[in-house]
């Protein structure tokens, strides 16, 4: 797991210790499900730019046209979030002020998202930030999909694309592979 933001190493270690205890007591059995049969899909991402949000909203609309109910949550890795992101009505966001001292969620929408049994959870870039990594690990989704990670991946299905690939290409690959399942 590559961390793009500086977190206190001692607090991260303690938080990981508690996370692994939690995961040992809460086993999940992944279920492979085609996008054709999915009713409820979760989408997670780190909010980086307004242009990224345009592509994400397009993807949400595309899945909505397939009859899929989409729930999206984005993490703003700062204490004072940009007003642009907060004006978005279709996506819930949480920021650093909505975390406890061990970087766990305090935001009610994000906790509800974490506890929802999605048919499929699709992550865009969340593993690079520890609070989102916690959310992904604790998620009760039946199938977790994300970009390839060599170590400590919370995903059941990983898609390996070049780091230089754009977000639209990633979404095309996700749809392509999730439609392959029966």
Account of the 3D structure:
With 182 residues, this protein is α/β, with parallel strands linked by helices. The chain has a single domain (9-178), classed as inorganic pyrophosphatase (n-terminal core) (Alpha-Beta Complex), CATH 3.90.1640. It has six helices and six strands. It has a six-stranded parallel beta sheet with strand order 3-2-1-4-5-6, sandwiched between helices. Strand 2, helix 3 (83-86) and strand 3 (92-95) form a beta-alpha-beta unit. 29% of the residues are buried.
Helix/strand-derived category reads alpha/beta
* Residues in helix, %: 25-40%
Query: Cα distance, first to last residue?
Result: 31 Å
Q: Could you tell me the mean pLDDT?
A: 88
Q: What is the CATH class designation?
A: Alpha Beta
Task: Count every beta strand, where a strand is a DSSP E run of 2 or more residues.
Answer: 6
Radius of gyration: 16 Å
Low-confidence segments = none
Strand order of the largest sheet: 3-2-1-4-5-6
Give the overall form. globular
- Architecture, according to CATH? Alpha-Beta Complex
H-E string: HEHEHEHEHEEH
How is the CATH topology named? Answer: inorganic pyrophosphatase (n-terminal core)
Oligomer: single chain
Give the percentage of residues in beta strands. 15-25%
Number of domains: 1
Number of helices: 6
Largest pleated sheet: 6 strands, parallel
């Amino acid at each position: 797991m590559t961390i793009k933001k500086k977190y206190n190493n001692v607090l991260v270690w303690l938080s990981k210790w508690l996370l692994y205890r939690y995961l040992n007591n809460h086993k999940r059995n992944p279920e492979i499900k085609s996008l054709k049969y999915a009713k409820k899909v979760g989408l997670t991402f780190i909010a980086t730019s307004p242009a990224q949000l345009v592509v994400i909203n397009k993807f949400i609309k595309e899945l909505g046209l397939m009859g899929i109910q989409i729930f999206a949550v984005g993490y703003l890795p700062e204490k004072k979030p940009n007003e642009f992101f907060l004006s978005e009505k279709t996506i819930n966001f949480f920021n650093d002020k909505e975390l406890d001292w061990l970087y766990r969620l305090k935001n009610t929408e994000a906790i509800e998202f974490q506890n929802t049994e999605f048919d499929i959870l699709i992550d865009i870039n969340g593993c690079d930030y520890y609070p989102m990594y916690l959310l992904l690990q604790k998620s009760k989704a039946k199938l977790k999909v994300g970009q390839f990670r060599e170590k400590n991946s919370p995903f059941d299905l990983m898609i390996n694309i070049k780091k230089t690939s754009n977000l639209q290409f990633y979404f095309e690959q996700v749809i392509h592979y999730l439609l392959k399942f029966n």
